[in-house]
Amino acid sequence: MAASAGSKIRNAKLVLLGDVGAGKSSLVLRFVKGQFVEFQESTIGAAFFSQTLAVNDETVKFEIWDTAGQERYHSLAPMYYRGAAAAIVVYDISNQASFTRAKKWVQELQAQGNQNTVVALAGNKADLLEAREVQIEEAKTYAQENGLFFMETSAKTATNVNDIFYEIAKRLLQGQAAQNPQAAGMVLSQRPNERVVSAASCCSS
Ligand SMILES: Nc1nc2c(ncn2[C@@H]2O[C@H](COP(=O)(O)OP(=O)(O)OP(=O)(O)O)[C@@H](O)[C@H]2O)c(=O)[nH]1
């Protein structure tokens, strides 16, 4: 649903990281365009998208970098996560190896990223319950121990997709008061009346 944005717009750089085929592009496509493609092509290098989200009377404009999961593009990743306000580390709940890979991304972010970056862990393909290899409790515990927030998502059914971005937006807005917004990868601009996804239309489950 479209809504009028408040006058305050926060630009926030967000990066998606995760194993090849975990569903990074599909999550972005669902969030930005409300679409799902059964045979989504593998990302080459990285792809850029933007989407705005209203949270109360403020608007967060996400500048989204969808990185490629293939190992040969690994060395490019720092260009995208450096200076990011937020990161979504994605794994596939039906693929244990993708969870192992997600943990490596978290380690890399913790070692090299901005300490203020809001990091979300997304257990994607939550619709594939019968093929589940990663237990929800295991991921929850890991997330708690590492200061991440965690949701299982499905780009296919849209479960928790808007919710994870909305939760990130909320946390960014909450956090900005306590820190330098520029340092956290957030920039204030004044651009009223942009079309945004309103909080009211957000958060299907
Ligand atoms: N069942 C199901 N399939 C999904 C879901 N999300 C993505 N897929 C499928 O998984 C495959 C890989 O999805 P992508 O979005 O390309 O994965 P990616 O992480 O961007 O992959 P790379 O670009 O190669 O790093 C595609 O065939 C998608 O249709 C989901 O939530 N459920």
UniProtKB/TrEMBL annotation:
The protein's UniProt keywords, in alphabetical order, are: GTP-binding, Lipoprotein, Membrane, Nucleotide-binding, Prenylation, Protein transport, Transport
Q: Where in the cell is it found?
A: Endomembrane system
According to its UniProt entry, one GO biological process term is: protein transport
**What is the recorded membrane topology of this protein?**
Lipid-anchor
* InterPro entries in the record: P-loop_NTPase, Small_GTP-bd, Small_GTPase
Report a single Gene Ontology molecular function: GTP binding
Q: Which GO terms describe its cellular component?
A: cytoplasm; endomembrane system
* Principal subcellular localisation of the protein: membrane
Q: Which PANTHER family match?
A: PTHR47978
Q: What family is this protein classified in?
A: Belongs to the small GTPase superfamily. Rab family.
Q: Which NCBIfam families match?
A: small_GTP
Q: What is this protein called?
A: Ras-related protein RABF2a
